[in-house]
Amino acid sequence: MLSQWRSTWVASPNRSASSPMAYAFDAAGGRVFFGGEIAEVTPLERYRAEQPPVNLALLPVNGLRPFFGPRLVMGPSQAVAGSSVLGARVLVPVHDAHGHDPLSRLFRTNGTASDAVRLAGPDLLVTDLPTGERWESPC
């Protein structure tokens, strides 16, 4: 799908160097949105107001946050809502593997890919893709 692709940088509202970034990849077969560090749905709404829908969204689902401080990435409900805002037919959850390394003890999570599967409606296919596994979109 992405053999001949073009990417678009999608910045968060404050456009600072430390702000979360996302990318949209266009190819002849469709559009993919990668928002690996997105915490809120609002930037996706702004993006979608100016861009056509995407076929596939890769969004975080674990709601990672430090013990003291704001959430760093989306949880499952925000990922499902964000996919809907983007017009995606497929959601591939990311940030679901945290929790098995020593550094993860400094953070807490609030959700999994399984939660996103449960929350998704009939118009959204949530593909819980294990790390390292290859998958081809039916879209």
UniProtKB/TrEMBL annotation:
Occurrences of domain Metallo-beta-lactamase (ranges): 15-95
One Pfam family cited in the UniProt record for this chain: Lactamase_B_2
Superkingdom classification of source: Bacteria
InterPro entries (alphabetical): Metallo-B-lactamas, RibonucZ/Hydroxyglut_hydro
Protein name as annotated: Metallo-beta-lactamase domain-containing protein
The organism of origin for this protein: Microtetraspora glauca
